[in-house]
Amino acid sequence: MTVTDQATGGATQPAELRRQGRVGVITLNAAPVNALGARLRAAIRARIEEAEADPEIGAVVLTGAGRLFSAGADIAEFDGAADGPDLGELIDRVEDTEKPVVAAIHGQALGGGLELALACHHRLATPSAKLGLPEVKLGLVPGAGGTQRLPRLVGPRIAAEMIVTGKTVGAKAAQAAGLLDAVTAEDGLIADAVTFAEALLAEGKPIRRTRERDERLLEARDESGLFDAVRADNAKLFRGFEAPQACLDCVRAATDLPFAEGLAFERDTFRRLMRGAQSIAQRHVFFAEREVARIPDLPADTPTRPIHRVGIVGAGLMGGGIAMNFLNAGIPVTIVEAAPEALERGLGLIRKNYEASAKKGRLRPEDVTTRMALLTDSLDFEALAACDLVIEAVYENRDLKRSIFERLDRIAKPGAILATNTSFLDVDAIAAVTSRPQDVIGLHFFSPANVMRLLEVVRAEKTAPDVVATAMRLARTIGKIAVQVGVCFGFVGNRLLDQRQREADRLILDGALPRDVDRVLQGFGLPIGPFAMMDLVGLDLGWSREASKGESVRDILCERDRRGQKTGAGFYDYDESRRATPSEEAEAIIREVAQRRGITQRTVSDQEILERCLYPMVNEGAKILAEGKAWRASDIDVVWINGFGWPVYTGGPMHWGDAVGLPTIVESLRRLEAEHGPDFKPTPLLERLAAEGKSFSEFDRERSAKRG
Ligand code: T1G
User: Is the CB of 134 under 6 A from ligand 1?
Assistant: First the structure.
């Protein structure tokens, strides 16, 4: 019978206290990640008080059940009224106990979980443990003393770097920095922690509280420029985000102010950010990126097919990148090509990518060897016969893809999944040429396929449920975030992109310069503007001189061999290091085309550029929802954040639309429709939500509730 049992009559508590000799072991037990929600906070406080009151207990070990110590505060609580003890006060309470408290960490100690451990008087961890304060990724600062205690243990420089980047550190590095007292045996955490606590009792030394340890702060007081250096080292993390600077300000407060004042500064900063639009958006994305895995009409226990070997048809840029995803996950790949030189080129590119990573220290040389050893290449389609999944990754030609699927249908083993990497073609039509449409699915990777996190899983009409489930599980295995989409031209990501590109092309004819459009959209937070992106990808993708009519700006640029960065000129001119400068020639071509079309050019405001490029994307998202081609508005957010770099601090196009206000968007679309035509016509669903004063997030919640 544990102490807790006696206290609660055996009811399962989210924190239990068991005595081992003179050491009381408190175990957090709130599945799945020991998130410090109200119930767990109250239980920890109760167990600490019981341990303090128990004369048999001289010291305490605090640890987590399950796979980790604690994932921190319960993020879901931030949007509602939090009850139960305040986390910061609970953590201060732990630090104030008169009996030594030793944190015993395995798995992860993150956010408030690490803050709880920082307030313990000692910390031990297993070799595989990871520790971090990732609040900045939620648009927050650590709000329970982390910015004040961590610098006192590891010094302000390491603390600032950890808190600004949100990166975790391993146990060994944590110990070296002063964050841990010891690293235990992987399977001896509790025993080692109890022994450590007993030794503390035997030594009888006074308790050392983190908040009283100022030596590391004093060392850094004369390290001028420390914070500017951390900011300079992580400059891109600051662009557009509020939280990184706030993190730096809090750590600086730890070096400049007494503990209590620094803690107050941190708490005020945390509360301000928590209520701010950026953190609300980033918390939305945190849950949205987990919600995408839930396919409403697919039970979570839907069986999946084992994938022991993957076949790739096509060793081009996409095929090679796709292959690397599986090789990285230790899954053998057979890659086939029609021509020897194409195969050689593809294999060379894969090896070159791995060697480049090894040169940067991201891969060990032996990893390159291991991964390349998993790769089999062949000019013979028959080599695919043993594969459990075959992914076609040839160029976007419908007839070619259909002929490949006819061959795969004859060659692939029964039960093999046949996937196409098409960006927009009709997967139903591709499935229809096979005798096994139930085994056919779309796996739309984004270039570079070995880098971009997004995978659109295109579910065709006859795709079997277990094939969808297998694709969603496999995506996680290869580190992708999979969004299930329906068959339509461009699926989800490219449908929204087409809306933006159409308007960008029109805006430059109306009088905006390419650099204006790019500046406005990059200023909004997108990583690259539409015209810089076209130059990067190549203006001649899908273009041919034979078919060119020489009428559009793109036609003329390509005809003049201004095909983008690869030719040193496109919408911009590029120097040898590919630095872009505005091009008088490109701007003259634009003026010439506008004149030919009878368009009187004018000054175009930044606001008009923003509304005409982004509002149609929100409108298209509503169309996609109404057509049932995406399960949730938040799925569309996940697509554009992970596939196109939509700024996470605005939550994605649909969350951003909610923040702008759907009535505002509908009103602007109606005005734009009157001025520029039916492409701006608001979708009925968008009009309905606006009229009812509802948001896309309410739309998602209502649909989720209806599905049960
Ligand atoms: N709060 C609430 N739910 C959480 C959670 C959290 N902190 N962490 C995870 N979950 C849920 C998640 O939504 C999912 O739910 C399930 O747990 C499994 O998560 C005051 C303010 C720990 C590395 O940012 O990084 O402390 O979908 O799918 O891939 O200063 O979860 O199953 O219903 O991600 O194995 C700071 C966030 C909080 C860590 C495990 N902490 N979590 O990854 O599982 S703010 C974080 C993670 C804070 C204080 C501040 C990961 C993980 P469902 P999962 P995983």
Answer: yes
